Amino acid sequence: MLLPTLDWHPQPRLEPLHLDWLARAGVEVAVLRLDRIDPLISGNKWFKLVHYLRAAHEAGAEGVMSLGGAYSNHLHALAAAGKRFGFPTAGLLRGHPQDTPTVRDLEALGMELHWLGYGGYRERHAACFWGPWQVRYPHLHPVPEGGSGLPGAQGCMTWAASVREQLAALGWTDYHGWWLACGTGTSLAGLVLAEAGERPVYGALAVPPDHGVAQQVERIVAEAGHCKPRYELLDGSRGGFARVDAELTDFIETTTAIELEPLYTGKALMLLKAHVEAEAFAPGTRLVFVHTGGLQGRRGFE
Ligand SMILES: Cc1ncc(COP(=O)(O)O)c(C=O)c1O
């Protein structure tokens, strides 16, 4: 049953972030706490899924199937939503069977898992990929890896309204831009569409710059018919996706004001610090940092 799912409208809180390096530069940051909308359905994932779930409901499906790795935040949130709202889920996993905390959660949350190997997983963009899975699971609607694409981005557009509603409570009359981690660029594209050129969106790339994020953002923005996107992609990957170095670990451990993980949010905030310290933002600048979640994935690094 997908209908009860569509009635859930989580409202992420906007909270001030107090850090010495921000204070020294006179830059103010508020964090949109997507990580706190729910203990299990955490981060940007729900928002990227919601339009796919609506499409699944409209197509008469009972549940959904999607793809991800053995630490996937996307599959984790999807499995948790299935358990919470009572719809069936199946997960197609990259590689060979692995026993990770995330995989154990997926099983406990009732997701049916299939390991595709590496070659099988690489086929996921092929036109015929979903055919056999739709035969096997005719009642499940396919959702692309990570909830990427325009429907995913459209679900993230609501963050702009959430922020505007909470500005006064922070004592802010306005804000000057957004800062967030990018994996596929879908979340960033949602904010670019929501801002419609009014304020810039800065994306800290969690993957190397040659991974096609810029093209993906351009594709989504063009598909939405928007022609004046205002955003900047900055390399926050520190040499590769999931590459974790001592400086990053130390930054996360010493930034006790907010819980971060090393793949996305830790790297994004660390890159913001470098930009603030390089005086990229004038004193008085007010930024919204989107906490995109991912804290469950930390267990792979502990
Ligand atoms: C915790 C976290 N933050 C950020 C992202 C990046 O989101 P997007 O793929 O929409 O750029 C992801 C997933 O890709 C994620 O799991």
Automatic annotation (TrEMBL):
The active site is at 72 (nucleophile). It holds the Pfam family PALP. It comes from the Bacteria. Keywords: Pyridoxal phosphate. InterPro entries: ACCD_DCysDesulf, TrpB-like_PALP, TrpB-like_PALP_sf. Residues 22-293 form the Tryptophan synthase beta chain-like PALP domain. Gene3D superfamilies: 3.40.50.1100. The modification N6-(pyridoxal phosphate)lysine is found at residue 45. Its cofactor is pyridoxal 5'-phosphate. GO terms for molecular function: D-cysteine desulfhydrase activity. Belongs to the ACC deaminase/D-cysteine desulfhydrase family. PANTHER family: 1-AMINOCYCLOPROPANE-1-CARBOXYLATE DEAMINASE-RELATED (PTHR43780). This is 1-aminocyclopropane-1-carboxylate deaminase. It comes from Pseudomonas thivervalensis. The lineage of its organism: Bacteria, Pseudomonadati, Pseudomonadota, Gammaproteobacteria, Pseudomonadales.
